[in-house]
Write a structure and sequence with these properties.
Elements: H1 4-11, E1 29-34, H2 41-52, E2 54-60, H3 62-66, H4 78-85, E3 109-111, H5 118-130, H6 141-148, H7 153-157, H8 173-176, H9 193-202, H10 207-214, H11 222-236
Parallel strand pairs: 1-2, 2-3
The structure holds iron/sulfur cluster (SF4) (2 copies).
Length: 237
């Protein structure tokens, strides 16, 4: 956010932001921005407390909106994973799933992205300060490519791009540098994941490779999980 953060600090009182200094986890606030997923029993209890103390609760980032990369555990045996990674798994108290905030408490707005951008967060704060509903992107990254007149990497280079099913907000950052989108902003509105999965197979990707494209940063988002798990089952048949 750079210097914009200083401007923001003049417009609002920042009462809890451990990384920036103020610590007051049980303060009553107008806006609570939540990062991270619910992956421990303590998280579940804490998010209910924050919800009770907040007028608006906004989840930001792939972990808070979709469960994040750590939600890969949702599709396998989490207990086995912990045991294979940690020398003393009995000290690790994590849930067998990583889930988004909205699965546990009412969320007023979700800002997708890994990570979200400063302008996204500032636009939301500004809208709320003016008393109007925040506006946020739901279009697909492809539309952003067209607006920028960026050459499509999937058409021109034959690389497997996730842009047709991914929500924009990044300004089609990766295609603008000639590389494929890997869906860090999560599913767009009405994505046709099945159709894209078939297109990726048409480009030569194996079912497992297609599954990995979907089961990634936002892999637990239902529409991505469905497409990815279907390909994974095919790969294991
Ligand atoms: S580069 Fe990717 S996001 Fe851009 S138009 Fe092509 S498929 Fe869509
Ligand atoms: S183009 Fe795709 S992977 Fe790249 S920043 Fe945007 S949403 Fe994320």
């Amino acid at each position: 956010m750079g210097e914009d953060f200083l401007t923001l600090a003049q417009l609002v009182d920042i009462v809890h932001f451990a990384e920036a200094g103020p610590v007051n986890p049980d303060a009553s606030v107008d806006i609570a921005f939540i990062e991270g997923s619910i992956s421990t029993p303590e998280d579940m209890e804490r998010i209910r407390r924050i919800r009770a103390n907040s007028r608006y609760l906004i989840s930001i980032g792939a972990c808070a909106t979709a469960g994040g990369l750590q939600a890969l555990r949702n599709f396998s045996n989490a207990t086995e994973w912990v045991a294979s990674i940690y020398a003393k798994p009995e000290y690790v108290q994590s849930l067998s799933t990583s889930t988004p905030i909205a699965q546990h408490v009412k969320v007023d707005l979700e800002l997708w992205g890994c990570p979200v951008t400063g302008p996204q967060v500032l636009a939301v704060v500004r809208a709320l300060l003016f008393g109007v509903p925040p506006w946020y992107e739901k279009d697909k990254v492809c539309l952003e490519c067209k607006r920028r007149q960026t050459v499509c990497v999937m058409v021109a280079q034959g690389v497997p791009c996730m842009g047709p099913v991914t929500r924009t907000g990044c300004g089609a950052l990766c295609p603008s540098f000639g590389r494929d989108c890997y869906a860090c902003y999560g599913p767009a509105e009405n994505p046709n994941a099945e159709s894209l999965a078939r297109r990726l197979e048409g480009l030569g990707l194996s079912p497992e490779a297609v599954a990995r494209r979907f089961l990634f940063i936002n892999g637990a988002a239902p529409v991505f999980a469905e497409a990815g798990l279907k390909r994974r089952e095919t790969a294991h048949d």
